[in-house]
Design brief:
This protein has 3 helices and no strands. The protein is mainly alpha-helical and 71 residues long. The chain has one domain.
Length: 71
Amino acid sequence: MQQLLLNISDASKVDKLMNLLNSLNYVKIESYTEENIVVSEKEKTLIRNRVKNAKPEDFKNWDEFIDSFEL
């Protein structure tokens, strides 16, 4: 199984895309909004600690990272 997260900048195209995806019998669509995503306090604390303790060497240059893939 593959999962995709789509960010669609042109809202006028969403209905057409959803109609196409709904017509495929092997695709299940789940819609999420900020209101129905719950992040526990434990997870929030974990992320905050990771951000607080991050060092510059923990990060990669995005352009170099993308160039390392053969697309």
